[in-house]
Design brief:
Length: about 475
């Protein structure tokens, strides 16, 4: 079995991802997935890295509705601009995005696209018989209604809903610029033909941070100095090579235009590293400056190398300039100026499902003896498993007490069924950080065996020290080898 198929099999079998959802009704709806108990735990850990990380870098969290009136999307440009060009097979009816059939074409005129499909005699990939006669421009936003007849849209991104808060936020931050906020929540896009599993879904969770800032502050950014000796792997547009560049040199060497922008690219990169992705599998790639969406001044993606789809974007970092506040100021007739200037916005946009799944794939290890997941410190869905060696002589009682104590602070499971070897294997497979076994000696000496999944090393420790020890091990403050 290929690595990516093993991951899919494991994800289904052990309760990480199920779908398409709802599976029991006609095999589900394409582009919608369920996160099972272990998948949800892992997704929470990824979300926590972002939440804590953003807060650590000075961003504050907000939450906005996921439904907004049409006028918002008219102002943001999504009503007109968030579109795909779609075509149907004249034999079997299958729908395709034109850019998936001809990925080298950049034209956006439906008639020209139609002519090109004909000229190149593009055949339908589904039935291999039909061709394509029509091209239609389709908006990707999902429409619904509120009240009796008001037309509204499910948000295609959280970012716009955050921008609408600018007047309130500006007052909250006591009119001091720059300031940062982030939002984690659901967004929706009606992908015509979602084909990349959990990497491209119609409903997804975003974690998006926004830095509101003035022009002069962008050029000379206060926090830039603090991290200027850190390096990150940059791949400039047009280059095939990734170069490690010091944050302090990024503007000087003309990779990016401002200190503030290079700083937030660094923030995004740092958070991906904090999730435990192998640094060799991370790169930061610049978008083609000629293909940027109309409002963006610069855009770089944090990509990781996946077995299934190769290099894949987990996060986009966008210099949105003053586009958003200018538009919303104009359409809402609300003043959004600071000292005569409309603030600029720098954005970090993470997709949580694709990040979680990529982490799952990156963590699978097949060392011929066993298939198991190896997560970075504290990132495994389950922190600790507690086993009584046998269900007798009071071992189960001590094990239960130990479990209950640890469960107050960590994600814990209790397992007393099957041989110890089988119980270890079950936990290894899902990457559980530590297994604790209570045996005969535990009853007399009040100690237990603790085993680390990644090294299979064991140590004997006092029950009374267990909580502090696990806490230090999970945070990375203590190395397993150093346990005395
Ligand atoms: Zn067809």
């Amino acid at each position: 079995m290929k690595v990516e198929d093993k991951v899919l099999d494991l994800a289904k079998r052990r309760g990480f991802v199920w779908g398409p959802s709802p599976n029991i009704y006609d095999g589900g709806l394409a582009g919608f997935y369920d996160w099972g108990p272990l998948g949800k735990l892992l997704k929470n850990k990824v979300e926590n890295v972002l939440k804590k990380g953003f807060m650590g870098f000075g961003f504050w969290e907000v939450e906005c509705p996921s439904i907004m009136p049409a006028k918002v999307w008219e102002a943001s440009g999504h009503l007109d601009g968030l579109t795909d060009y779609v075509t149907n097979c004249n034999k079997c009816g299958s729908a395709y995005r034109v850019d998936h059939l001809m990925d080298d074409v950049e034209d956006t005129d439906p008639d020209k696209l139609k002519a090109l499909l004909k000229k190149r005699k593009i055949k339908c990939p589904s039935c291999n018989k039909g061709t394509f006669d029509n091209v239609e421009k389709r908006n990707l936003m999902m429409k619904t209604g509120v009240g009796l007849d008001q037309e509204v849209f499910l948000r295609p991104e959280t970012a716009t809903t955050t921008y609408l808060l600018f007047p309130e936020l500006y007052r909250f931050f006591r009119t001091k610029m720059p300031f940062g906020v982030f939002q984690i929540g659901k967004a929706y896009r009606n992908e015509i033909n979602p084909r990349q599993g959990v990497f491209r879904t119609r409903e997804f969770t975003q974690a998006e941070a926004q830095l509101f800032i003035l022009s002069e502050q962008e050029k000379k950014f206060e926090k830039f100095k603090e991290f200027s000796s850190e390096t990150f792997p940059l791949m400039k547009y047009g280059s095939k090579k990734t170069v490690n560049v010091k944050l302090g040199d990024v503007v000087k060497k003309k990779y990016m235009k401002t200190e503030a922008y290079s700083y937030i690219v660094y923030v995004a990169y740092k958070l991906v590293k904090d999730m435990g992705f192998d640094p060799k599998k991370i790169r930061i790639r610049q978008h083609n400056p000629n293909e940027l969406v109309h409002y963006a001044k610069d855009a770089w993606d944090i990509e990781v190398n996946t077995d299934r789809y190769g290099w894949f974007e987990l996060c986009g970092v966008h210099d949105r300039a003053d586009y958003d506040l200018k538009q919303h100021s104009k359409f809402s007739k609300t003043k959004m100026e600071v000292s005569g200037e409309i603030p600029k916005i720098l954005e970090i946009a993470f997709g949580l499902e694709r990040t979680t799944y990529a982490l799952l794939e990156n963590s699978l290890i097949d060392d011929k003896k066993r298939d198991w997941l190896s997560f970075d410190k504290g990132m495994a869905p389950i922190d600790v498993a507690v086993f009584p060696l046998m269900k007798k002589d009071g071992m189960d009682k001590v094990a239960k007490e130990t479990f209950e104590e640890l469960d107050k602070e960590f994600v814990c499971v209790y397992d007393s069924s099957g041989s110890i070897g089988r119980r270890y294997r079950r936990m290894d497979e899902v990457g559980t950080s530590f297994c604790i076994t209570i045996d005969h000696d535990s009853l007399k000496k009040k100690d237990v065996t603790i085993r680390e999944v990644s090294t299979m090393k064991q140590a004997r420790v006092k029950i009374s020290n267990l909580k502090t020890l696990v806490r230090e091990l999970l945070s990375g403050d203590l190395d397993f080898k150093k346990i005395k």
